[in-house]
User: Fold this.
Amino acid sequence: MIIEKKGMGSSIGRLVKDPSSLILVLISFAVLCLFVIYPLIYVIALPGATDWTTFFSKSRYGTALLNTVVSSSLSALTATVCGFIYAYSIHYSNIAGKKFFRFIAFLPILAPSVMTGLAFLLLFGRGGMVSQTMKAWFNVELDLYGLPGLWIVQTISYFPLAYMTITGVLRSISPNLEIAAQNLGARGFKLFRTITFKLALPGVINAFLLVAINCFADFGNPKLIGGNYSLLAVEIYGEIINNEPGLASVMGLILVIPALLVFVIQSKLLSKGSYSTITGKPVSGLNRVKTSRKTDIVLFIFNSIMALFILSMFAITILFAFTKNFGRDNTFTLDHIFKIVFNPSSPAVLNSLVLSLISSILAVGFALVLAYVVVRKPFPGKKILDFTAVLPIALPGTFVGLALIVAFSNGPIMLQGSAILIIVAMLLKQMPVGYRGLTASFKQVDKSIEEAATNLGADSRRTLTTIVFPMLQKTIVANFVYAFMKNMNTLSTIVFLITPKWVVAAVSIFNYAETGTYYWAAAVAVGLMGTTLATLGVMKLIFRSKVKIFDF
Assistant:
């Protein structure tokens, strides 16, 4: 029997004997140290005593912090509730039009969250279509700026994220426990409360976590809709514009605290119970317990209202994009599209496409390397590398962008104003998702396959490219599609990093909306969504069954 030696010395020895693995490990540490650890340390060390004193002495900043917690909590709560009801109606009711409702839930993912704020302005702003109708017909003036409007906008913006998270959990719940409970007398709400909801609780909590993190970091919607209701993300942007990086860093660090608290609360809640439903017992042929006819009617009405909101958001944006000035001059025109989307002097959509493709390829490639070395290769510091790799997903996008701009606008490495910094910011926010997925996939692949390749003379580089990559191709492509869609629509993470040369579509939408040129903002939004759809269509043609994009 051959006993494998363990310990730090033997791990280093094996790593040195495999130069390809050694290079991959060193590159992984170098990249994460440079773009995660270094900016984090820099942003923590940057503020002086004056900056901290200023933050705690001015009630304006304390109010912004309170507003951020209140609005984000309310929006996360309502988005999660709406997402749960919507997903529950898809999986537990007999309502008509389920495929249509799935499609509606997918639509907002194509658009940047700031487009929801734009559509809200076009519908419910002071000059919006609904506001003008209410004033003309009922002499009622709508004023939804501030918390009410922001609450509505963030709920609609992030409800699809909650739905996507919860629907996966509801789909995986085995019907055997629900049928057993029904046989023991549980019916209706009692069955839902004691069995279904408890089993779905991990998905509900994860949905709340993801939505809350996005709401904490949201910049575009609060800036457009918030009015005098100031939030920390907006205040950080103002201090960066005013060249006060120290004070901005203080607020960025404060912004991280609620996000980390959400993670702690999530861990505490999920550690108190067992939610397993896959027990090895046969469940084929069992039909899930469905809701009553009356409940179906209520769920159908709810889903229809959500669908109406989402369709109205897209419809008003398209109308403004393809008319001269909708509501005042409804003449059809393509001028806005050609002037803003296809004009070489205004390449925001093209910039988004190029930067998103590059960043997504790098993010998935780096995630593959990280997952490979962490799961397959023994080396000192593996836990540190693993923690650092997933750290950016716990940080609000606003904070990630802030850390990069303050760290690389001074010092030995100057990247301010370059496309590299935008690509890095996109990579850092999307790479952890791919890393988690690929890590799980690696653990499902027997290590003996790679060992056989090694025994036949293949080094780590060849094993990775000829053995590992083909086996994980579906996971890699799926993560690339996810990263690409998120990068195309991102705003909060890169709003500090853009320059006149490298303006992206989401930032252009925000800039045009803020200056009141709504038809141009709408044109960029339509161009962005069209480009995203076209690119995803090409990916579907290339990879076919290896990726599911339009299967609702």
